[in-house]
């Protein structure tokens, strides 16, 4: 089962400190971790640092081994990032894109198993009717779903999703996060998803990590983390958690509580 430890993480870009002393709770396989926080708080930087080997200070360990001790190939196979921007339109079809990605990353899987894996993912995400259409003919939401397939095709131990639902309608927001959650549960993988929609984060995540200006503002069980005090302090809004008729927590944001920091 996957285990990730991140302690005292710091990242500098263009001479600016973007992440500062970020220590996360130990992240366990099977968990969905919601990475939340205001714009520019460092969510994408954190995900890219985990996945792409960007320079950092502090410690990142996978199953107890420092991430820097892994070969590039091992790291690419174990950690997979779905970037914020969907795959750009090209004349490739989703089917061709997935197959060429699997070959480029030298997935050790037979053609037959790869075909089944692709059909399974494309089917779960409602993409079978589009599997042989060119990407540049697909809508933005469909391309975002193709991006999710790409991140999952290698069956990584650490699935990192940067705003995976930002272009999706209600049905596919729920579907995409259900598929990611089942993936984490079934394979003992850690899924970390940067999300702006706090209600989706409350519904799907086991743990929330809140970033604010590059620092950890809070981490823990979603309902314990998402307090009115935190929402005012970190997001600058007056907001509250209520219970819906089914007992689930729902965030209601009432007003901007303070001017945005300059
Ligand atoms: N290559 C870079 N060079 C310098 N600064 C950068 C670079 N990339 C990101 N930043 C800065 O790092 C900060 C965090 O950016 P990041 O994209 O990680 O935030 P985010 O929380 O994902 O934001 P959003 O919710 O708006 O997508 C921002 O101030 C951004 O301008």
Report on the architecture of this protein.
By secondary structure, this protein is α/β, with parallel strands linked by helices. It folds into two domains: 3-226, Rossmann fold (3-Layer(aba) Sandwich), CATH 3.40.50; 227-262, no CATH class. It has nine helices and 13 strands. It has helices at 43-52, 72-78, 94-104, 111-124, 140-152, 170-187, 198-204, 222-225, 228-235; strands at residues 3-13, 16-22, 27-28, 32-36, 57-62, 65-66, 79-82, 158-162, 190-194, 207-212, 215-220, 237-243, 249-256. The radius of gyration is 19 Å and the shape is globular. The structure holds adenosine-5'-triphosphate. The site of adenosine-5'-triphosphate has 12 residues, from strand 2 and helix 1.
User: Mind telling me the CATH superfamily name of the largest domain?
Assistant: P-loop containing nucleotide triphosphate hydrolases
CATH fold name of the largest domain? Rossmann fold
Order of helices and strands: EEEEHEEHEHHHEHEHEEHHEE
How much helicity do the residues have? 25-40%
What quaternary form is this?
single chain
What is the C-level CATH assignment of the largest domain? Alpha Beta
How does the overall form come out from the CA principal axes?
globular
Q: What does the radius of gyration come to?
A: 19 Å
Which runs of at least 5 residues are low in confidence (pLDDT < 50)? none
Bound small molecules, deduplicated = adenosine-5'-triphosphate
Strand order of the largest sheet: 7-8-9-4-10-11
Q: In whole angstroms, how far apart are the ends?
A: 43 Å
- The domain count comes to 2
CATH architecture of the largest domain: 3-Layer(aba) Sandwich
* H/I helix tally: 9
